[in-house]
Structures
1.
Amino acid sequence: MNAAQQNPAPEALSKARLRLWLRLLKASGEVEGELRRRLRAEFETTLPRFDVMAALARTPEGLRMSEISERLRVSNGNITGIVDRLVQEGLALRVAVPGDRRAMVARLTPRGQEVFAEQAHAHEGWIDALLGGLDAEALAEMTRHLEQMSTHIEKERG
């Protein structure tokens, strides 16, 4: 590797970062699109609904709508509609928060936990298949680079 390759000009580095960003978007979009397709085909569900159920599965004591929204980075309105449907289907329930009569948390019912466990198992298999072209070393290296990028973004945010 020559000196120019080791220390590219700022403009070249900027262009390389832009190309990387576009590749990240493309890869992420491809994986997300395939997950959406498979969730719809195999479970007649959506990725946002799967994400809400995943958040509730990770927090058995339940979450307020605002907490789900914050974790998933979507609006409360979107979450409320999804939770309403989960409740109607017997997959989730709303429970009053002790000491705050106005506040409610959503949690999965036992049936909701079973349904989600089946979906999560399939989801893990799909991710494994979609990323199957990466060996252990490539996975570790990409993970390290993505963590490094996230750390830098957090610093830039202030």
2.
Amino acid sequence: MATGRVHGVQRVLAKLDSSLKAGNYYEAHQMYRTLYFRYLAQKKYTDLLDLLFDGAIVLLQHNQQASGADLAILLVAVLSKSGAVLSDEYVLEKLPKLFSLIKPDVPEREVFLMNALQWSCSGSQEHRTGHPELHKNIAQIFWKDGFGCASLLVEIHKMRGYAAEVDLFIAQAVLQYLCLQNMSTAQAAFHCYTSQHPNIKRGPPYILPLLNFIWFLLKAVESGKLNTFKVLCEQYQPSIKRDPSYPDYLNKIGHIFFGIPLPRAQPQGLFGNILQSFFSGLDEESDTESEQGPQPSTSSRQHQRHAQQSSHMETEELD
């Protein structure tokens, strides 16, 4: 009886191999499911996990998205049924690998992710929402996925963002992608976000200047035209000034894609900025006390006026 089952499995494996070599992926998927039920009945969990992982990889790499995702979901089900212990092999490698191969528009992708996270927190009171390393690896995949990132930004803005921030959400992401030298993902995220968001009229041109700036910036980076980049940064100053982080991003983008030297950092650095903020607070307190306490002497007032005039002249020279 056992020998018959072994021969039966071997016949299915041989047929599976023939189907894959012939490119008959629908039939191959059916063979995988047949083997799934047979191995599951025999509790051959290790062999079954290897079979499902390899099968899912093959099908996904041949763009058989629905079939590959189905095997990936079955794999997680086996992990749960077998009581498999959490291991780096699955948390750090295999589950993120499968997730990265399933395209964002495949409905089964979300099912696979939810099931994988649920398995990763099984039996753990500490990680009730899923193992942190699995979350980290999935987040990195989302970050590299322009379409997935854009869809996520659209949903977050609709639920949490202000109407006036609709352009800020995608601008921040695109600039960061460019700073990471990820041009293709930056383009994908921008086009997906602007086409999917219900509050953005199709462009270009766009009604919002910041969106036009980002669109032109992507074109400038793609063409490598330094003068275009410089003109854009000059003409769109009001949009750039909306976020204090934008100039830093653009300095880095100019350096990476156009060879512009990075501006020299101020000697005071971060610690100097903290001290400056601290002393500014002391000055404000001192001003308050001077209003309430004794007035400065005539010579002190003259010295202050002279310092203010000098400061004003220096400011005009800088302007």
3.
Amino acid sequence: MTEIYHKEHLLDRAAMVAMRAMIALQPAADLGPNGRAAFDDMMGKTPQADTVTYEAAEVGGIPGWWCRTPEAMPGAAILYLHGGAYVVGSAQAYRNFVGQIALRAKADAFIPAYGLAPERPFPAAVEDAEAAYRGLVAAGISRIAIVGDSAGGGLALVTAARMTDAARNRSVPKPVAAAVISPWADLALTGESMTARSGHDPLLTHGALEQARITYLGNNDPKDARASPLYGDLSSLPPVMLHVGEDEILLDDARRMAASILAAGSTADLHVWQGMVHVFPANLALLKAAAEALDIVATFLGLNLRG
């Protein structure tokens, strides 16, 4: 495992002070159905990528959105699994953010509208992500990178592991790469940073994640590999890149995930960003680190998608 530490830019430090002050004045984020509109409004503020077009579509029976780029590679695509603790978030709200990644990677990206709890609890998200992957393959796309953030980052790793296993019997091609931002990889919430970073993370709390976990999993085991990739079979994974803010409570999810991937014989590069919080790359309008992180992710994806 390679861990790369990115020091905070001076301008970003000032921006983070202002952002923390603004967040402190707002009500705590609602990681439940009543919080969906506010979450989508927040994600929709990511600047739209120039020259990217958006197309509503269905892939593998799962509705979603394509982010199309003019220089897209034929036969290759990004499968992007959005965040939101398996309860909030939408493919439509993530179009601008994913478009930024697609444009930089020179690859089309599909965002499936996977099922959310409580209407469609575990394992609906896993089943929908797999259906979307298989749908891309059925459409003639053989080089697929799986990407996601937060809960979608955990789901991306789960899907990468499951599709790697499926590739062993040649039912699908193996993913060429996986890249995750602030992944929620352990729904058992056992990471030390859950408490150690609780005073630093203005966006997530242990209590909010615990409530989201209950809504999504019900009585299912949080250490089920379909829920928490940290406890799954990580052997033979494609190359994995992880990005995480040093100030977020999911810091140890990313660190333990990277170490576990390495222990299983696969490769992982972990990028830790000083002073940054949960899914900081979405703040492209404010943070220099956001653009830098997306550029690093896109370079990694482009290299692996080209083969």
4.
Amino acid sequence: MATQAGIGRDDAIPLYHQIFLGLRDEILSGRRPFGAAVPTEHELIAHYGVSRITARRALDELAAHALVERRRRVGTRVIFKAPATPIEANIDQAIESLIAFGRDTQVRVISLDEQPADAAVAAQLGLAEGATTVRALRIRYLNQTPLGAVESYVPAHFAGALTRERLTAAPLLEIVRAAGHTIGGGTQTISAIAADPSLAALLETDPRAPIIQIERVVHNRGGTPLLFTIARYRGDRYRLVLDLQGGPHSATGV
């Protein structure tokens, strides 16, 4: 299948709808939050190599689904706000579970390089937009079958601690600890997206297959962000289990 910038040219799904689905996933997952700018028609044309009619139709479909607002001379902005219900968890237990999960799976490092932080990454790491970060992209395997693609960003001062060999041998959280940082807490957001052709190829699944996306920010005890990770797991090979325990004032009904 011929692909360009995350769309399939030979896919049965129309190009405008593929672009719409990709942008919709970014909005619903929070990667493109309320008030954020959406690419213009010209930017979509340049990025995807499509016609103006195709680009316009993708943006019109976003507006029709009440995800964006299009205003002349102002541009297109996200108007969707995702509802969220915070759940508190013990950070030490959560971190140990994540490290154990990392040890029980195998990793192949796809890329490890320095990149300027875009607006979303900068906001998560508390950096200025354009600041240097280190980005690591890994594929995590279970029983020699792809389980998920894990994309992580850390501030530039971690550059010396990250190598392909270390990322293959140990979970990133363990590497952060070994570098002398104490983990104080974190925030995790879970959403569902559909695999675009490039992600589907990495995970050896079908385009539009269901994907569980987990975005995680980990910070030290002083509240300084240490790590921002976007993990995308195959929906047919990954599940989340929460152990819910009631206290003396637990509700008796739902």
